[in-house]
Amino acid sequence: MRKHEILRKRELISLLFSGGKSARGDFLRIVYASLKSENRLHDGVPALLLFTAGKKKISSAVRRNKVKRMMREAYRLERSSLACDARYDKDGETGRKLCIAFIYMSRRKNFPGLGAFRDEIRELMASLPPA
To answer: pTM of the predicted model, to two decimals?
Structure first.
């Protein structure tokens, strides 16, 4: 994933969580919203992404980072087969971008494998309503 695909601005993140819609799977939650992005670096990027795993859910930083790496890899592998690129590319004249946050929600000791993350992300992205 390239640097300009990552959602970093504090204002956009707070807007995403305050006004975004969400869907929940077995162990992931997705929060999404179409937000105004002034930065022209995001041209050609289908969505701005945020991957997070809370400290209360996974206390070990090593395990949190591993879960986030697995989520990023699962998204990268599933990105080409997803239809969100065509449905949500609104960057043209309006300057709006789809912002998506993937949140790990499970409290289990053993977290799922890469295949389970891929299936979960595929299902959650398919459940997004058309733009």
So the answer is: 0.84
